[in-house]
Write a structure and sequence with these properties.
Elements (H helix, E strand, L loop, with lengths): L1 H10 L3 H20 L4 H11 L4 H17 L1 H4 L8
Helix pairs in contact: 1-2, 2-4, 3-4
């Protein structure tokens, strides 16, 4: 299910649906990152942020901002690679 959300996020073209998917990812991340799970999420975001395609970078940064907002405390241990 989690990897399906990540795929859906990159394939969705409707902004409202994409935003809802990013919010769902943030909610799941709050629980998964607290248990040190879902390392795939971190790789996914890092890959998006490093893409040469502007809309992919924007999507990565947007998702990162949602995760920081929803799961900031849980995400703190993972910030170093992003800085």
């Amino acid at each position: 299910m989690k990897s399906g959300l990540l795929d859906a996020l990159t394939k969705e073209t409707e902004n409202g649906v994409r935003n809802a998917i990013a919010q769902a990812i943030g909610s799941i991340a709050k629980h998964e990152l607290a248990d040190r799970k879902w390392s795939e999420l971190l790789e996914f975001i890092q890959n998006l942020c490093c893409q040469g395609v502007a809309n992919q970078r924007e999507l990565g940064l947007y998702t990162l901002s949602i995760i920081a907002e929803v799961a900031g405390e849980e995400f703190k241990p993972y910030l170093k690679p992003f800085i």
